[in-house]
Specification:
heterodimer; A: mainly alpha; 8 helices; about 0% strand; B: mainly alpha
Chain lengths: ~240, ~220
């Protein structure tokens, strides 16, 4: 089976259309399930009471912001290195979803910080580097919208995204390198997590929901980008009509 | 080649001295605005001085960035430089070096005078100069990536600020941190070492990124 034919925007467009409902519907179900477990089944925290429950939105959206930036940088790099238009279109499609998740993590963090730390904003290392991540997303989107020539925009965005990717490990390791308000990592990939099982389960379910949501939304946006850029190609004439 | 590029850029800059002096005046004016806006209380000024001076240095160097490639783009020299058999890395390095000498060294030299406006103690003025000396190469190098990416675009200075200022933030944090540490009596050495590390890393990687961005912008 030749998968490489899907590297062409024209071939990927109908595939993306078929994929979208397979990701959108499970995403809604997983959000409902994860938030139910998080709000009703997970136990009340010993120190923070019920105020901690915003963690089930805050942490998955922070993870998504970081993952999506790396993914965007990889796609942009592939588009630049292999001159693959579809990969660059994918990077452009991911950008705004990633920015949204980063903004969501900053806002939910601020709302969480007020009752627990006493302040909406604290300028600790993780918060500052996540803010920088948001600025990098905004810079990527601004640069691409300022350049009229689409291939130049793709490649320039790739350079910017790759230069900024160094920020993501900084966010991740900032809690180890600095003494900050954020606690150290309680969830390790290898090793026993130090938080209660229902809390971990809820976080992972919401994370899966965010992934499914991101895939669905990015594919919808990608289809729009394909239509915008390929509108002069005859094979899209009947789609436009 | 490197020497030739640096000499050429320095000569051209000398012929347009007003451009360079305007960067320095911008720096002085911005730094002077803060005491006027915040009030003359000495204790307060001393505590905000490192951040204010560093932010003004960031803004001044950002404004000088489009001078890096724009003139050469307009008269066609940039395309010729892209066609030379010498590596573009060296061309970029030469231009950034000349830009640093012309736009950033004046800031470093003026910084003690400006620091006196904030009643910074003598030893801290030295740390201020050292931190700017180590940090301004980072500003020039990272700024050159932004300048190359936005070459010829209509967004102008605002677009380059959006791209480049987030990347400047680590230099700002450690540069201002070094001066801050010196004011409160702690050792500025950790901050200066990290700043030096940024300078070395950006010296190695950013001319390469700038060269790639130039080829993208000029194709």
């Amino acid at each position: 089976m030749n998968l490489y034919k899907y590297a062409s925007p024209a071939n990927f467009y109908p595939l993306a259309g078929k994929m979208i409902p397979w990701f959108a519907i499970p995403s809604a179900i997983l959000f409902a399930a994860g938030l139910y477990v998080g709000f009703f089944i997970a136990p009340t925290d010993f120190q923070q009471g019920d105020a901690y429950r915003i963690i089930f939105i805050h942490v998955p959206s922070a993870w998504m912001g970081m993952f999506l930036y790396v993914l965007m940088a990889i796609y942009a790099g592939i588009g630049w290195a292999f001159n693959a238009r579809l990969a660059s279109m994918m990077a452009s499609a991911i950008a705004i979803t990633g920015a949204m998740f980063t903004l969501l993590s900053l806002v939910t963090g601020a709302l969480w910080g007020k009752p627990t730390w006493g302040t909406y904003w604290a300028w600790d290392a993780r918060m500052t580097s996540t803010l920088i991540l948001l600025f990098l997303y905004i810079g990527f989107i601004s640069l691409q919208s300022a350049i009229d020539d689409t291939r130049r925009a793709d490649r320039a965005g790739a350079v910017l995204a790759l230069v900024g990717v160094i920020n993501v490990p900084i966010i991740y390791f900032s809690v180890q390198w600095w003494n900050t308000l954020h606690q150290g990592a309680s969830i390790r990939i290898l090793g026993k997590p130090t938080i209660a099982a229902p809390m971990l389960a809820a976080m992972l379910i919401v994370l899966a929901a965010c992934w499914f949501y991101s895939v669905a939304v990015v594919l919808i946006r990608l289809r729009c980008i394909i239509l915008e850029r390929e509108q002069n190609a005859s094979r899209f004439a009947e789609v436009n009509a | 080649m490197l020497r030739w590029i640096v000499w050429r850029d320095l000569t051209l800059a000398w012929r347009r001295r007003a451009d360079i002096l305007s960067t320095v005046f911008f720096f002085i004016i911005v730094v002077s605005l803060f005491p006027l806006g915040i009030g003359p209380e000495t204790q307060l000024l001393r505590s905000i001085a490192p951040g204010v001076i560093w932010v003004a240095a960031l803004l001044a160097s950002m404004l000088s960035l489009n001078r890096l490639f724009a003139n050469d783009l307009q008269d066609g020299t940039l395309e010729q430089l892209l066609l030379t058999p010498q590596p573009l890395f060296l061309v970029v390095l030469g231009k950034v070096l000349a830009h640093w000498i012309v736009s950033e060294i004046p800031l470093v030299l003026i910084a003690p005078l400006v620091g006196l406006q904030f009643d910074i103690p003598g030893e801290t003025l030295l740390i201020l100069v050292v931190s700017l000396l180590v940090g301004t190469p980072v500003l020039s190098l990272i700024g050159s990536v932004g300048a190359a990416l936005t070459l010829g675009l209509r967004g102008g200075g605002v677009l380059i600020s959006i791209l480049v200022l987030p990347l400047y933030i680590p230099a700002l944090i450690f540069g201002a941190g070094a001066v801050e540490a010196s004011i409160i009596g702690a050792s500025p050495a950790p901050h200066l070492y990290l700043l030096g590390a940024f300078a070395i890393v950006s010296l190695i990687f950013s001319p390469w990124a700038t060269a790639a961005a130039l080829r993208i912008s000029l194709e």
